[in-house]
Design goal:
heterodimer; A: 390 residues; alpha+beta; Butyryl-Coa Dehydrogenase, subunit A, domain 1; 3 domains; B: 3 domains; binds flavin-adenine dinucleotide; FAD (chain B); AcylCo_DH-like_C (chain B); oxidoreductase activity, acting on the CH-CH group of donors (chain B); Acyl-CoA dehydrogenase (chain B); AcylCoA_DH/ox_N (chain B)
Chain lengths: 390, 391
């Protein structure tokens, strides 16, 4: 029977999360975070873990709730509304599904219960300095030494590397081409040789760069098959981008609310500015974008959970639309607020910078569109990743 | 979350599909007059088969169809490329309104004939000086003994040239400062000396709407819907019925997008399919996302309607989104045909329907309330923004 809505439990969970975030001061947590005061965020993280947020997609035998991508949606939307810092997205919507599917028993036992309890989170170490997301340009290398791997290289744009306990690292273990010869390795942040924080426009998420010099980890840290890491990673990306879309929808939801509320109370020429159609109609167009993104992202997560044939097209459609719409909305929001919108004081800038953070995050719009076209079977292009000379 | 149809719904779909297979006309006449009688025949065939006014109660010739069955109906009609309904105004607007607030005598007189297409209806709202601001209508109806004499001019009256009846808004009294008051709805007989219809040619070369001049046109008390001077409420309730028709446009958008995909694969320039061009493919992926978004929005609003029992103001979102997107998509469809895309009719590079539909699409963001008016409605009724100043 036709029912395109989140169910009662999902909406109820949303309400708990929203209440918790409101009590913590909503965007105040992110604001404090940008000033280097992380204590509020750490307190909030504990509360969210107590609520069960960190166990949603983890199976029950490892201390989670055993739910799916769609159950994560309301939580991600609420986090997006609050531009919440932290690597919840990477942990819950990338590493967890990969651990559940490809992790060994030992890996699951090591990591999943701690993630569920909120005491361990993960980030992703993929891109290298001045390089793209192309798998074949990855140089960071892991060589076998007995039953260990010895890793050397530099990874950059690691989201919140300084906020997490562990990293999922993609390394070269063999000669490559078309994504071959790569492996995924789970490492702890304290095993990293050096880490520095880079200056990023979006200060609600830290961007770090890590250096690995002869870092030795057991072979048992490889997740999935050796040299097959790229395929595993691509599967994880489906979860990650479906979830990212929901996070973006949450931000947009807050933006539309900000703009409409402000347009009702700010008066010029003796009337609320929301009466001027230049403002009113722009906010309506923002609302249309928001609802379209919401529909696309809800469907994408459902398609992922239920393994629909169009899941790839659905996920990357949601991702492209939500990403572009989010930038558009964040920009309009500033304009709708006038001078105050241009200040650090108002939240407008937080949303704009966050929108930019996710624009080229783990892929680019044009690449996602190629993924859509591939998913629909109308792709004619040359192999997506060409060998670059090394 | 669930996108499946129940067994009962699937049976309904199958029944309709089978019926269409047997009854769908195979060739469509080109010539105008033949085309009109073709459409009238189609309407009669639908009614005889029990496939017109399906949501209506059985005693009016309907089959008590549910909202979901109505959705399936739209899906299947679009899928089968069925001819358009020539009595759209009668079936989707006048019929449901009469059933809701008409007198027994009116139901008796009109409903059966509009279902079978024996009587075609048009909608007489707009006037030269009353379009978006409908409350500014000037056409007057004055009581003269036991009849009403109607004088004035209507414009953009779709199907006016073939209509037998008109659902007409006229002013029956002046209430200073309250333009919405004093308006009455009449069921006007178009076949009388006081009614003169002059066709207007649309920008796509077709002639579907008209000017209607009313000079002492006659109606009786029995032709009034609801109460005298209270026509505005009647009109609002009719508008809600009109909104339900958006489903057909949503599925048409979906179909047109699929046709566009097929076109970009099949049409070759210098030996290469259009879809091989990265710029085109990127834009197609964008259009895919947005058309899927529009369809999914529609399903989400539909879910709300199913839960609440009636549509909310969100249906304006569907109308605005679907009409604007359709226009943009067709513009793109013509644009990618390159220099040859300027040709149409028998010289069209692919199929003149692309050019024709493209031009026609400009009417969809004007008719039924312009996009700007939809934005006002959404801003004010969905987002609660302050109302425009209205004189
Ligand atoms: C294909 C087609 C079929 C039609 N069929 C019928 C029919 O069968 N019966 C019938 O009665 N009418 C019919 N119409 C008429 C239609 O309802 C009107 O054209 C429409 O309501 C707009 O009115 P108008 O043409 O007077 O434009 P106007 O109202 O003069 O509008 C001109 C421009 O001003 C804008 N505008 C007006 N008011 C505002 C405002 N408050 N805020 C912002 N912008 C504003 C409009 O959006 C538009 O862009 C049809 C129209 C079309 C295109």
């Amino acid at each position: 029977m036709m029912d395109f809505s989140l169910n009662e439990e999902q909406e109820m969970f949303r309400n708990y999360v929203r209440k918790c975030l409101n009590e913590a001061g909503q965007t105040m947590v992110a604001r404090e975070f940008t000033c280097g005061n992380t204590s509020e965020f750490i307190k909030l993280q504990k509360k969210l873990a107590e609520l069960g947020c960190t166990g949603i997609t983890i199976s029950e035998e490892y201390g989670g709730l055993g739910l799916g991508a769609l159950d994560l949606v309301p939580v991600l939307e609420e986090f997006g509304r609050a531009v919440l810092p932290g690597a919840y997205l990477e942990t819950m919507a990338f590493v967890v599904p990969l651990l559940e599917k490809y992790g060994t028993r030992e890996q699951k036992e090591t990591y999943l219960p701690e993630i569920a309890a909120g005491t361990r989170s993960f980030s992703i170490a993929w891109v290298e300095p001045n390089k793209s997301y192309d798998p074949d340009v990855i140089e960071c290398q892991a060589v076998t030494k007995g039953s260990s791997l010895v890793i050397n290289g530099v990874k950059t744009l690691v989201p919140d590397g300084n906020q997490v306990e562990s990293l999922l690292l993609i390394v070269r273990t063999d000669e490559g081409g078309n994504g071959d010869g790569l492996s995924l390795v789970l490492i702890d942040v304290n095993e990293v040789t050096d880490m520095k924080t880079l200056s990023s426009m979006d200060e609600t998420r830290n961007v770090t760069e890590i250096t690995l010099e002869n870092v030795e980890v057991p072979m048992a840290r490889v997740i999935g098959e050796v040299n097959q890491g790229w395929n595993v990673l691509k599967e994880g990306l489906l979860y990650l981008h479906a979830a990212t879309s929901s996070m973006l929808v949450g931000s947009m939801d807050h933006i539309v609310e900000m703009s409409s509320e402000y347009a009702k109370i700010r008066e010029q020429f003796g009337q609320p500015i929301g009466r001027f159609q230049a403002i009113k109609h722009r906010i309506v167009d923002m609302k249309l974008d928001l609802e379209t993104a919401r529909s696309l992202s809800h469907y994408a997560n459902w398609a992922l959970d239920t393994n629909q044939q169009d899941k790839e097209a659905a996920i990357y459609s949601a991702r492209t639309f939500a990403t572009e719409a989010n930038i558009r909305l964040a920009s309009h929001n500033i304009q709708n607020h006038g001078g105050i919108g241009f200040t650090m004081e108002m939240d407008c800038h937080l949303f704009l910078k966050r929108a930019r953070f996710y624009e080229n995050y783990m892929g680019s719009i044009s690449q996602f569109r190629e993924d859509v076209s591939k998913g629909l079977g109308w792709s004619y292009e040359k192999p997506r990743f060409q060998l670059t000379s090394k | 979350m669930d996108f499946s149809f129940t067994k009962k719904e699937e049976r309904f779909r199958l029944e309709l599909r089978n019926w269409l297979e047997e009854n769908l006309p195979t060739s469509w006449p080109k010539e105008e007059e033949a085309y009109i009688s073709f459409l009238k025949n189609w309407q009669r065939t639908l009614a005889e088969g029990g496939w017109a006014g399906i949501t209506w109660p059985e005693k009016y010739g309907g089959r008590n169809a549910t909202l979901m069955q109505e959705i399936i109906y739209h899906q299947e009609m679009v899928r089968a490329d069925a001819p358009p309904s020539i009595n759209y105004v009668g079936i989707h607007m006048v019929g449901p309104t009469l059933m809701q607030i008409g007198t027994e005598e009116q139901k008796e007189r009109f409903i059966k004939k509009l279902l079978t297409g024996e009587e075609i209806w048009c909608q007489g709202y707009s006037e030269p000086n009353a379009g978006s601001d409908l409350s500014a209508i000037k056409t007057s109806a004055l009581k003269d003994g036991d009849r009403w004499l109607i004088n004035g001019q209507k414009v953009w009256t779709s199907y006016g040239h073939i209509a037998d009846r008109c659902f007409l808004l006229a002013r029956t009294s002046q209430v200073p400062g309250k333009k919405h008051k004093g308006i009455t709805v009449f069921l006007l007989d178009m076949n009388q000396p006081g009614v003169e219809v002059r066709p207007i040619v649309q920008l796509d070369g077709r002639q579907e709407f008209n000017e209607v001049y009313l000079t002492d046109a006659v109606c009786s008390d029995a032709d009034i819907v609801g109460e005298v001077d209270k026509g505005w409420q009647v009109m609002i309730s009719l508008m809600l019925h009109e909104r339900a028709g958006i489903g057909a446009e949503v599925f048409t958008l979906e179909k047109q997008f699929n046709n566009l995909v097929a076109m970009t694969k099949e049409y070759k320039v210098d030996g290469k399919s259009l879809i091989e061009d990265a710029n085109i493919r990127q834009k197609m992926a964008d259009l895919y996302a947005r058309s899927r978004g529009a369809i999914l929005n529609y399903y989400r609003n539909l879910t709300n309607t199913l839960k609440n029992g009636q549509p909310g103001p969100e249906s304006s979102i569907d109308k605005l989104l679907v009409s604007e997107l359709t226009k943009e998509m067709l513009e793109f469809a013509v644009s990618i045909q390159g220099p040859h895309g300027i040709l149409w009719k028998e010289d069209a590079p692919i199929n003149s329907r692309w050019q024709e539909k493209y031009l026609y699409s400009y009417g969809t963001t004007i008719g039924g309330g312009t996009s700007e008016i939809q934005r006002n409605t959404i801003g004010e009724r969905v987002l609660g923004l302050p109302k425009d100043l209205r004189a």
